Amino acid sequence: MDAFLTFTGRFHPLLVHLPIGFILLALLIEFNRKNFNESEKVLKFTLFWTIVSGVFSLISGFFQYQQEGYLWKTIQAHFYFGILTLVLSIGFYFFLRKQAFLIRIPRLFFSVGLLISLLLTGHFGGTITHGENHLTEPLKELSSTFLSGESNDFEVQLNEDNYLEQPMYTSLIAPILSQKCMSCHNPKKTKGELQMHTYKALQKGGKNGLIVNYKNPEQSELFLRIHLPKEEKKHMPPKSKKQLTKAEINIISYWIEIGAPENQTIGQLGVERNKIDAFFSKEKENFYPDVVLDSPDTKTLDQLLSKNILVSPVTKESNLLNVSMLNYPNFETQQMDILQGIQQHLVSIDLSYSSVNDSIFNRLAQFPNLVQIKLNHTKVSGEGMSQLSALKRLKKLYLVETSLKGSNLPQLLNLPAIEQVFVYQSKRNLTEEIELTPKLKGIIKLGDYILPKLASDDIVY
Amino acid sequence: MQARLNSRRHFLKDCTLGLGGIALGSLLNSCSFDQKTVYDYSTRRALNPMAPLAPPLSPKVKSVIYLHMVGAPSQLELFDYKPELAKLHNKPCPESLIEGKEFAFIEGVPNMLGPQATFSKEGESGNWVSNHLPHFKNVVDEVSFLKAVHTDQFNHGPAQLLMFTGSARFGRPSLGSWITYGLGSENNNLPGFVVLTSGGTPDAGKSLWGNGFLPSIYQGVHCRSKGDPVLYLKDPKGVSRDLKRKIIQSINEINYKEYQKFQDPEVLTRISQYEMAYRMQVSVPEVMNINDEPEYIKEMYGVKPGKESLANNCLLARKMVEKGVRFVQLYDWGWDSHGASESEALSKGFLNKCRDMDRPVSALLLDLKQRGLLEETLVVWGGEFGRTPMWENRAGIQNSLIGRDHQGEAFTMWMAGGGVKKGYVHGETDEIGFRGINGRVSVHDVQATILHLLGFDHEQFTFDFQGRPFRLTDVEGRVIHEILA
């Protein structure tokens, strides 16, 4: 009997579409009734079948509620509005048959009432099968894409400082389950009679018994299902839902393998770091500025490329550009105009081996997003370097093997974001020209490393 | 000819795909919510297969210098300090240890061999370095050790192939080829992938820098530090550089017409190699000339001008990276310390190898560092496998000189440079250095890590060949996050 009821219940999603179709047809006729000759007759006919199919929908719906583990709270609204829709259809039908006590009610009450009630029933029904945020979710994602330029789809995050003291279940497993499983397995909606919102609920299992098998972990239903190919019917999460990532599958599997501990911390369990690397927040500061730009116009880029100037983005999808004059040794300071079109895009420029002079600093100061400048093997002496102070993001400056004068080094203190300046000169020693203050020593990399010769260097065994 | 090639069928095919593509492209564009547009740099590859491309992920380094000690240096005499092994010196190896194990030469029951070096903790990191590497002690804080690397090959050729092509069999592209295929090369006048050898050619030969199924432009260019840097680069007698340029121009024009007809990438390879060879006639001798370096730099590396040596190659590697060469591969032959002859003995030949490697390699790290190059270069050091804690007994008789057999289960490598932790140790071997017990990493893991640092996801970086996508790490490999800064 149970099986029969379940079977009938499963017809509900199919059956409901009959009255929906009939009602919409009836309403279309109703609102265009002046164009039809026999509209009243057709309307009565349509509404009659609405009522018949409506009754069957109601019955099948009730069976489904009883058999499939839905909570009353969840289906309440859908149920009441379903009945209301049916009642309104019946009312309209008898109104058209000129039942005495109904004629006093305005015709518009039935038609408009039916429309509203149908829409609400449908909406509450959809909420049960697809989740409460089903409709609004894409909107949210859309707006976040607009705002940040990328969707953040990962929220489980461990912290370098304290992850060892965090219980593995609460800090890692539970957040993953809550994101990817709980929308269908919670006290409200309990597919397969399985809830996953607490550790106890996991222990309890679902319709098919235990999902975590403590004696034989690899036979755990949870373990098996997440490993099934996506095309398999039993694969979880279902094909249409957001899938677990590889790292998530691995860590859940590992957790089950070690006996699905509830309270032990990551440190106590000795979880290897490589298993959880994916779950650390990647909030390390980026070397390149966090600005989103449109692609520079193709003409500028083509022009640069035709001149043997190397232009490449920092990563494939980025519009931040590295430029190098490595293949253009005759490049001179005046030619900087050629970079006008990528003023905002330029984040790193390599002018090593080129023919630029000290006036280059003035020109470089006009590229606000520069984080790195290389002037190795050029004639610059450092005169006018302080103009680079206009560059609020400049972190690295290379002045290796140049005509750099020690006396110009203090200008570097004006650069607001500077972290490292490489000034190694193989044929002279800058410290002979100037005594470095501790502040300067902090940013200037003098190089001048040597390996003292050892007696053993000449021993031949 | 042209008329025959452009048949009606071609026209229709071009039209449908072309026009459809244009329509679809503009359609998709108008639908896109993401307003950012990205310029397609890959079109540059149509004319120049070596055109530099950006990697998909944020790179930590842009060049690699890979120092390979051909023959497999003994980790037990250099970095993997095993005091317990000293106590077992010259005692028979417990049979349980070698039961079912295969060795290249060991037969029956060998004796154990204690460490043939003294060790000390060096640098701020306090990591172990042997007395055979006195200079390296100065740079130990720059490197991340991998102490439990393992390979499944115990013969030189296959093990080297696995290390550099991801497969122990012939036919796959080498590490450097993959990288130049993915990133191209910055310097127009120098090859993107340079190979420098000292002491001899590695056992697996040129396949170690071969392009496999990638277009042949991506194969390594073997430069010699003695005599002509690149063979057959000089013009023959009576041919002036001007004449040469004209010849190459004409040949390339003909070749380009050929390419336009058949779209064969190998034709492009041919064109760019002719051009490259012409430019290299000037640029290679220039970059290969180490005489202009200041005396103390030459002294620091211990270079021997005019000779073929690891020291010369290390200095050249720095010069090349400085000039934008993407991948410099150094092979130093002669580390196969079996104890079967004097040059193979841990008490003699090995010590000479250590001396000749220690100074230039340490100098290379320092020189890169002082020029700010170490932050954007990855330096990798290693062999194709390790050596046994047992004294080799070839044919069952203990070798007269001290030596160790091949061991794939555990050996030491190190990495230094951009994106790599400084003064760090990952992995640990058992008390006698026979097996990794902690933090074991495979050859594919090392490759995955190198690609990661260059901005590639090794699982996504593929090339379609014979009906399936191939990748360097085949179906394995895991990025060694533990050593990443």
Provide tags for this entry:
heterodimer; A: 461 residues; mainly alpha; Leucine-rich repeat, LRR (right-handed beta-alpha superhelix); 16 helices; 7 strands; elongated; B: 485 residues; alpha/beta; Alkaline Phosphatase, subunit A; two-stranded antiparallel ribbon
Model description:
The complex is a heterodimer of chains A (461) and B (485). Chain A is mainly α and 461 residues long. Chain A has three domains: 2-130; 163-279, no CATH class; 298-445, Leucine-rich repeat, LRR (right-handed beta-alpha superhelix) (Alpha-Beta Horseshoe). In chain A, 40% of the residues lie in helices and 5% in strands. Chain A has helices at 2-9, 12-15, 17-31, 39-67, 72-96, 107-130, 137-148, 168-180, 199-204, 221-227, 246-257, 266-269, 273-276, 298-306, 360-364, 438-443, and strands spanning 310-313, 321-324, 346-350, 372-374, 396-398, 420-422, 444-445. Chain A has a seven-stranded mixed sheet. In chain A, strand 6 (420-422), helix 16 (438-443) and strand 7 form a beta-alpha-beta unit. In chain A, helix 1 (2-9) crosses helix 4. Chain A is elongated, with a radius of gyration of 36 Å. By secondary structure, chain B is an alpha/beta fold. Chain B folds into two domains: 2-37; 49-483, Alkaline Phosphatase, subunit A. Helices cover 32% and strands 16% of the residues of chain B. Chain B is built from twelve helices and 17 strands. Chain B has helices spanning 2-5, 8-31, 83-87, 95-98, 156-165, 175-183, 241-262, 265-288, 295-301, 310-322, 349-370, 443-453, and strands at residues 63-70, 119-122, 127-130, 143-150, 193-198, 221-223, 327-333, 377-382, 386-391, 404-407, 411-417, 424-426, 428-429, 436-438, 441-442, 463-465, 468-470. In chain B, the strands form five sheets. In chain B, strands 1, 4, 5, 6, 7, 8, 11, 12 and 15 form a nine-stranded mixed sheet that branches. The radius of gyration of chain B is 25 Å and the shape is globular. In chain B, 53% of the residues are buried. Mean pLDDT of chain B is 89; it is low at 1-5 and 11-35.
